Each structure stands twice: as C-alpha cells, then as structure tokens.
Amino acid sequence: MSKIKITLVRSTIGLPQNQRKIVKALGFRKLNQNVIHESSPTINGMVHKVKHLLSVEDVAVTERKKGDS
Predict the structure, then answer these.
(1) φ and ψ at 38, to 5 degrees?
(2) Is residue 31, in this structure, part of any structural domain at all?
(3) Could you tell me the CATH number of the domain that includes residue 46?
(4) pLDDT tens by residue, 14-62
C-alpha cells in the first residue's frame, strides 16, 4: 500500500462546516501541518473534497523486516 503526505496550506476560516470537519478528520490542527496516511479510497475521497486547501505528495515507503535495525 502506498502512503501520501498531506499538508494543510490554506485556512478553513469561512468554509462550510462539512469541509472543516473533513480537514479535522484528516488529522489537521494547524496551518502548514503535515500528516501521512495510507492511500485508500476513503482518504482519497476526503482529500478530493478539500483539495483546494491541501498539498499532496507520494511518500516512498521502505519495508523493514523484523530484526532489522
């Protein structure tokens, strides 16, 4: 599964309540905060609803085996 890094780049002031709730559900508390989520249909749909407020990047994930340091 791939991961995405999402950054909140615009404020939620003056936005409808449903968009504010989506931003909060994604895990944002402050402007310019970053969160990392698994790329799933649910998260992608939420990002699509508030894409005018966000910056989205793919994150390269390396698998670590048990016992590796």
Answers:
(1) -65, 140
(2) yes
(3) 3.30.1390.20
(4) 999 999 999 999 999 999 999 999 999 999 999 999 999 999 999 987 7
